[in-house]
Amino acid sequence: ASLYGNTERRSLGTRPGAVSGKFVPPVRRGNSGDNNCGQKRGAAAAYGDSDDGNEPGPYDHMMADPRFKNIDSKMVELIMNEVLDTSPDVHWDDIAGLLDAKATIQEAVVWPMLRPDIFSGLRGPPKGVLLFGPPGTGKTMIGKAIASQSGATFFSISASSVTSKWVGEGEKMVRALFAVARVKSPSVIFIDEIDSLLCQRSDTEHESSRRIKTEFLVQLDGVGTLREQVLVVGATNRPQELDEAARRRLVKRLYIPLPDQQARRQLLEKLLSCQNHTLTATDMSWVATETEGFSGADVAALCSEAAMGPVRAIDPSRMRHIALDQVRPIGINDFRKGVSSVRPSVCQDELKLYTEWNCKYGITR
Ligand code: ADP
């Protein structure tokens, strides 16, 4: 299957503004009383539990593991159903450009997961990696590639969902997440928008957010102590908002920049490889040059826009019956039109912030 096809991503949360998935939190905002009765009612409602609680759950067999002591079985079930991502099938070659970042990750985390015997002691892997940079540059793809290339179980979660949806339950959820990751080790926990989970302390900070953050850091400190391989990969577009304690723990901090011309060209070729098109090598180089400042996601959006050109040329009355081979190929003119309507989503000022932060805190090999 093509990388650019829809590999289903089961994520507990979504980016702000995105349509949320089918996830049903056990306790919704507003009914999160601190008393246990309230929580039980919430969980029971979410799962349609019978009151006697004798119904066997699909993960009961796992719960016998001592690492699940004091962990809510309903939370474990949620993690298995909603945070576990069973299809992180991304290969390094699928990710255009980013040669340095890929090489660093290979050495720092993929090989250690494959060969824990060689990578121990001084060569021990980091517990946490931070991928920072503009949106749409491949950070999520890298998280998936780490998991699929190292054969690790992949957990994918959006941090804003932990803090906003799980009011009153966030700490429990973080504990359960790490417990499941340990049991399913080797594991990669990918946390999108990690800045919203591990932001700097402020006077207006909610008490529950502070508790989630503390729990997260405690859990992060605890991984790897029992020869379990759990790697946390955080992604952020706002590295400057990270709490200092969190930043220190995410020891490998890698800048994932906008793609350069060569990477844009590579991406373009990949995206067009399964399409009917007439672009020559020179045309592709022209598009790669014209898309200076585009993120990988912007290049993908441009290709989608250009791909609509041939469809828009079809007379609407023929749309229902036209044969596929009668749809004209995508041409350079479709891209010419596309570059005037699809604009880069990241501005220069933002880029400056990333390069400055990278100079201060970024780490490569
Ligand atoms: P991020 O996590 O950095 O916001 P994603 O990894 O979710 O970005 O990328 C969004 C989409 O943009 C991907 O599905 C892919 O189509 C495209 N994309 C971005 N960067 C790259 C890249 N370096 N190589 C290939 N595709 C990319």
TrEMBL record:
Q: Residue limits of the AAA+ ATPase domain?
A: 125-260
Q: What are the boundaries of the signal sequence?
A: none
Region (Disordered), start-end ranges = 1-56
Q: Which domain of life is it from?
A: Eukaryota
The family annotation for this protein states:
Belongs to the AAA ATPase family.
- Give the protein's recorded name: Fidgetin-like protein 1
Tell me the organism: Hyalella azteca (Amphipod)
**What stretch of the whole protein does this chain cover?**
365 to 729 of 733
